[in-house]
Amino acid sequence: MESSCDETAVAIYASDRGLLAHRVYTQADLHEIWGGVVPELASRDHVRRVTPMIRQVLADAGLAVPPRAGPGPGPGGRGPGGAPRSPVDGVAYTAGPGLVGALLVGAAVARGLAYAWGVPAVGVHHLEGHLLAPLLEVDPPAFPYLALLVSGGHTMLVDVEGLGRYRVLGESLDDAAGEAFDKTAKLLGLAYPGGAKLARLAESGREGRFEFPRPMLDRPGLDFSFSGLKTAALVAIAGSERENGRPLDEQGRADLARGFELAVVDTLVAKTVRALDAGAGRYRSVVVAGGVGANRRLRERLAAAARARGVEVHYPRPEFCTDNAAMIAFAGHARLAAGETTDLRVLARARWPIEELAPPGATPSQ
After folding, report:
1. 142-315 CATH, one of 3.40.50.1470, 3.40.50.720, 3.30.420.40, 3.40.225.10
2. Does position 141 have pLDDT exceeding 90, yes or no?
């Protein structure tokens, strides 16, 4: 189960058959009027959506919801009075990071189900789900790989050595790339969520009219910064309006979107290439995860740069780039299979550095 922000999602994964079913409900229409996610509204909508969605996904997977539960020997076993037991072996849920109220809804429901069904539960780190999402595909990358995690809340380069073995090589010092996309889209009058809309607008834009800086490429290291790029877009819009005596027309908005998108993409690709070169042959694969990973221009330019270095680029399918429960089910399955469980606490952490994760059985850092 995934409920870290404004998507309610449920999925079922089987070790022998792969992903059996998954559904995602997005609250974008609910939050559009406010121009961004309202945490309290997000939490309330999760409460409304989650239980019906659980029933729908179980039905999609051909699994029955037991009329009552009790102790018994595994899925399909029998509880007191012959009532069928849990339809699943375990329950995984997003425990953080995210909006704490939204996390609590998913965590409480998931932990309650696990207790009622008599199966183990495990709280999953949201970013671990993203980092492992490409492993759901037919041709998964092999460890170790370099991951570019780029979304509305995070932009980072991560060395992925295995389950729970993650080392952050660089990250955004301020706004994430997806956040910068959304905020610049708002400056252009695009409705929330605006990042994908800005990318579509950029398709009809012309290169060269608006030139933006490529932040932090003039200094060593793998960290990112996008807040100044967003400010540069604001200054460019205001400057154009002063010069022409009117707001940007549709072509002008498209031109600005194109220039902004190119600046973000060039920065992401350059830092990823820098990490590959610094790895000195360690990586045979680059994984791109998170919502911005669906950006067409990013995919094209990163593929070309990686191909020149003999490196393959892997992406989750588009519906698994954004928040989803399939990646949580996969990560949870991996940890449950390794013997890890979460106790009866309802675990929800708004902030949770990924460096605190550890492989199953190891002691996490604090």
Report:
1. 3.30.420.40
2. yes
